[in-house]
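Order emerges. One example.
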Amino acid sequence: MAENSDAKTLNMTDKIVEDWIRLVERNLIPDMALLVLYIIVGIIGNSVVLLVYRYEMKGTSDERYFIPKLAIADMFASVVCSVAAIIWDVNQIKFSHNILCKLTFCGLTVPASLSLWLLQCIAVQRYFKICRDHTLSLKVRRIMVVFICIISVILCFPYLILYGSNDFLVDGIKYGSRCGRLKEYAYYEAGFAYAILFGVLMILTVVALTFLYGKVGLKIFQHFKSDKCKKTQASNSTIPKSGSEENTDTPIEDKDVVSDSQVNIDIESRENENNLGTMCKAENTSERNGNLIEMNSEKQHKIVSNVCTDSSSGQKAVAIVSNKVKEDHLEKETDV
């Protein structure tokens, strides 16, 4: 009876474990489909970036140094991390290969940390370029890339020691194996501490990214704000005031009036000169009163010289000339 009850219990346990395994595998199908989508999008998107930088942006620029390398790292991460995650999902219950388990964790660690720290390098470069007005030399940029590659590989080594395949036991009976931290006490505690350390390191990297890009964004905002203020001041300075418009218009009108009056004076003076010339000829031909003719000629000569020299009082000179001409005609009539 005891043996029959133990057999029934074992059969029920086997059935429960098998149902649980099938449930886990069925629930992992959407996760694996999403990982396949990550692979496709990562390859296509980063390939487009590389092609654009290869054929469209042929000019060298210090700002473009890290972008192609980031595209390569992202493509590597999208493929390797997704494949490693699919392997881990497929062997969720039956991950018996110890070396493959260690390599799976390395495949998840190296590409992810490499991409994240390349983003950190880009943030540092932009911070020095925009906030400090300093350009990193090509040598410094190369050293940064080599350094983060070495650090990413070094961070992988603890997974090779502290992680591996563990048997999955139910009532002392092995039903499967899982990939994770080794169950031995020394390895398990060290693996737990390293997992915390790695997580804190990733969080600090994200905080540094946020800080650097926050400083860059603040600097750009201040720059655009100052440019906007300068444009506003320039536009205000170019708009004339009402008083200034009146002051600027008045002298222009005065200049126009003066120039017209000068032209009129010149024309009238020339006409008067012609009239005086004809009068002089008529008086010279007359034989009467020679002294009177000489006096009139002297007066006329003075009047003409005054007309030619006195340009500031041109209108008065014209009036004098016309009055004198009238007097001469009256004198001639009286003489006759």
